Amino acid sequence: MTELTHWINGQHVKGTSGKFADVYNPATGEVQAKLPLASVEEMEAAIAAAAEAQKGWAATNPQRRARVMMRFGALVNENMDKLAEAISREHGKTLPDARGDVQRGLEVVEVCMGGPAMLKGEFTDNGGPGIDLYSMRQPLGVVAGITPFNFPAMIPMWKMAPALTSGNAMILKPSERTPSCSLMLAELLKEAGLPDGVLQVVNGDKLAVDTILDSETIQAVGFVGSTPIAQYIYGRAANNGKRAQCFGGAKNHMLIMPDADMDKAADALIGAGYGAAGERCMAISVAVPVGDKTADALIERLVPRIEKLKVGPYTAGDDVDYGPVITSQALARIKGLIDSGEKQGATLVADGRDFKLQGYENGFFVGPTLFDNVTPEMDIYKEEIFGPVLSMVRSKTYDDALKLVMDNEYGNGTAIFTADGDTARDFASRVNVGMVGINFPIPVPLSYFTFGGWKKSAFGDLNQYGPDAFRFYTKTKTVTARWFSGIKEGGEFHFKQMD
Ligand code: NAD
Hints:
Layout: E1 2-3, E2 6-8, E3 11-13, E4 20-25, E5 30-36, H1 40-59, H2 62-78, H3 80-91, H4 95-112, H5 115-119, E6 123-128, E7 131-139, E8 142-146, H6 154-165, E9 169-173, H7 180-191, E10 199-201, H8 206-214, E11 218-224, H9 227-239, E12 243-247, E13 252-256, H10 262-274, E14 284-289, H11 292-308, H12 328-343, E15 347-350, E16 369-372, H13 379-382, E17 389-392, H14 398-407, E18 410-411, E19 413-417, H15 421-430, E20 435-438, E21 454-455, E22 458-460, H16 467-472, E23 474-482
Parallel strand pairs: 1-5, 8-9, 8-11, 9-10, 11-12, 13-14, 13-19, 14-17, 16-17, 19-20
Antiparallel strand pairs: 2-3, 4-5, 6-7, 7-23, 12-22, 15-16, 18-21
Helix pairs in contact: 1-8, 2-4, 2-7, 3-4, 3-7, 4-6, 10-11
InterPro entries: Ald_DH/histidinol_DH, Ald_DH_C, Ald_DH_CS_CYS, Ald_DH_N, Aldehyde_DH_dom, MeMal-semiAld_DH
Protein name: methylmalonate-semialdehyde dehydrogenase (CoA acylating)
Domain Aldehyde dehydrogenase: 13-479
């Protein structure tokens, strides 16, 4: 049994609290490692050391900080396969998907290589007579990143790269279910030249998080996870005077118009609904076909595609479509929601509850599940299932479909499949959701744009990565300067004596 560590002051440090969490291999159901859970004292010591280290890091010029990101990016690339394996081992996603997880994090690191350009201030010459104004962006100090289980590389990199490039120190508290990748990234950052103490990876549970939230040293909290925890963290952090951006859960709808290419729409629904076992905050979990003919055409195409899906452990090869869900509790919850959908009157077209895989009987697998005739009152519609379950809500008109999306409490991502530019344009303009795909099911913006949902999918201001991240991790100071005239005032007719 491996005993994992924290990463403090540039080295692996054993936990001293005596409390551990089990880290599972979700494909086999076995515990593969013990993760130390930090005590209040351990967390506070890590924060204090980060505050010391931050002073020198903030004084390091921005270009030198960006060079650490350049070397880090190269090292992440070199270690791509190792990182992906660590992700798949703890999360269960396939290796190609795990490489994508690393890649989408790396792309944010790449933007941070040009970070100094984002950190520049503004200048107005002669804002008044002889008066100049300039602003500068300064780091906040020590900030925290609290991340979810489902993207063990991408989301820690979304947090660390802009925060560190901006001159902050960071306490990263990764998910206790998928912690190894963060520890590996910390090793690579050290190798890239990051001074010790500037990134502390402190593992833990609610106690560790609450210690962060109540710390007077921590200036900002970047959180990603489920909506109730996002709202809790946002409230407690803000109440303690911290800057907070807390990204929450989702229920992403995809509209399919009668003029859409049905084969492409079905392919998109399969990938976006079942990829990573539906454990993506940008997964499509609700298909909204407009018109019964559209719905029937889709069902006809989805069923054979679902039958062909290969579910299995990541070790079974790159042709596996998706793996297990994260824990036995998640498995039980997803199965319970499928039961409820059946009881509440939805049509169960494909049922993944009894999925079994020889040799992996104790793994946390759910087969692909499809419901038709789902209504907004049903629990399978209201809850974020976070599993390989796709619900179809039939809609009579485009306006009804749009209203369904607008009325949903979440607003992370949404998509429309159509051949009509006018409808697509109207949808993108009116929908109250943060990220919109047009004939594109998972519209995660590229790293030089910015990522964030609306409504209950995000609390606080400013998005993740892109220019917003640099604004979040810095504060602006504005200077108004006037210099009174010296020697230039009046003439001097004698040789000045330089005494
Ligand atoms: P989670 O909310 O259970 O955990 C997220 C983090 O919060 C973890 O580090 C965990 O240790 C900590 N935490 C959990 N319970 C806590 C508590 N009571 N008090 C303080 N801290 C606590 O989320 P998860 O299950 O790891 O991740 C899945 C969720 O994340 C889904 O809802 C998914 O939609 C969401 N998500 C959102 C985005 C986004 O950008 N909006 C991205 C990825 C995942």
